[in-house]
Amino acid sequence: MGKKIVQTVGILTILFTLFRFVASDFWWIRVFDFPHIQITIFTAFAFVIYFYKFKVSNYKDYIFSFLLLVCAVYQFYKIYSFTPLAPFEILDATSVEDDSTVSFYTANVLQKNKKKEVLINEMQDIDADVLLFTETNLAWQNRISEELDSSYKYRVEHPLDNTYGMLMYSKLELINPEVKIQVQDSIPCIYTKVKLSSGETIQVIAIHPTPPMPQHNPKSTERDAEMMITGMCAKDSQYPVIVIGDFNDVAWSQTTILFQRISGLLDPRKGRGLFNTFNANNPLMRWPLDHMFVSEHFRVIEIGLGNDINSDHFPFYASLSFEPEKAAEQKMPPPTKDELSRMEEQIKGKPGFE
User: Fold this and answer.
1) Which end of the chain, C or N, has fewer beta carbons within 10 A?
2) How far is 104 from 129, CA to CA, in rounded Å?
């Protein structure tokens, strides 16, 4: 490979890295948050190849190699938390009592997906306590509901034709479930309390904000605001909290990191893996868009990806143990004044937050 080609690749990876520090919410800036794994690989590749083209007498090679090395280290640092080299953010369960466990299965079904039976078979095999489906219209509601067994007595159904419909089904009692509009009129979310078999009550929030893409939103403003409002509600909840759904954002973005800091919620993937849910149709361009964040009251029994359901997303499932007596062992420190200020700026002017 010629030196000019390697330099071109290297310059692009440096620029992609620098885009992360641009204070702009335009989609063509924020979109570079997504392929972080791929950019990390390209940066490391460019550094290794360029090293073989290195000329000791050329000071520009020193500068360029140094920049590539810094970018490669920075890029890896951003995904380090999701590798087995990193410590768990949520510890493993220490006891598994049936009445103090709760399991979730969530899937963006792809509204136009015609092979609905694939999802039906998958959800029946997983047999989770709580099911959440996004991008669901009335056809999806009818198909799923007719296949659910009688144990799923509690339901929140809000089908839409705009790819933002949501369906939630639960074996556990749902207390005061509510479909809310937090930012955009056509983008719902679900708030509900869930009563565990032990009698304890937890708060569950399901969201699916719009992505920063030209066909959806030219900016990430609406998505970011939805996440910040959700984070603030989680922070203020008097109950242990689980937030789940298709965030249309990656786990390492500035917005998701701020969401975690504001909410105080923990990520069960950290130390366990990336669990890339999108794009199921392209193994070279995958990243985690579907998330679950939980308060310090929970421990991990199992997490993983589901099988291919003919959607552009893989399903995501998790089984948790409710262990509030050990919450202090993994509690996140409170957000700083600067983080609270950034959150307030992102929700300024939104309904109820003027």
Assistant:
1) C
2) 6
Helix residue ranges, H only, the chain: 3-19, 27-30, 36-52, 59-80, 116-126, 138-147, 221-236, 254-263, 337-347
Cα 342 vs. chain centroid, distance in angstroms? 20
Q: What is the pLDDT of residues 5-57, one digit of tens each?
A: 767 777 777 777 776 666 556 555 667 677 778 888 878 887 777 767 667 66
CA angle (245 as vertex; 321, 102 as ends), nearest 5: 20
Round to whole Å and give the CA distance between 298 and 173: 19
Peptide bond into 58 cis (omega under 30): no
Q: Which amino acid is at 152?
A: Y
Give the long-range contacts of residues 15-19, CB within 8 A, separation 24 or more. Answer: 17/43, 17/71, 17/74, 17/75
Nearest to 43 by CA among 5, 3, 4, 14: 14
**Residues forming beta bridges with residue 317, ordered by sequence position:** 105, 304
Q: Which of 219-233, 275-289, 295-309, 340-354 has the lowest mean pLDDT?
A: 340-354
Provide CB contacts within 8 A for 1, sequence distance 6+. 49
Which two structure tokens, joined as six digits, stand for 201? 């009550």
In this prediction the pTM is: 0.91
Please indicate whether residue 79 or residue 206 has the higher confidence score (pLDDT): 206
Q: How many other CB atoms are found less than 10 A from the CB of residue 147?
A: 15
User: Residues 222, 334, 321, 199: what is their CA dihedral angle, to the nearest 10 degrees?
Assistant: -90
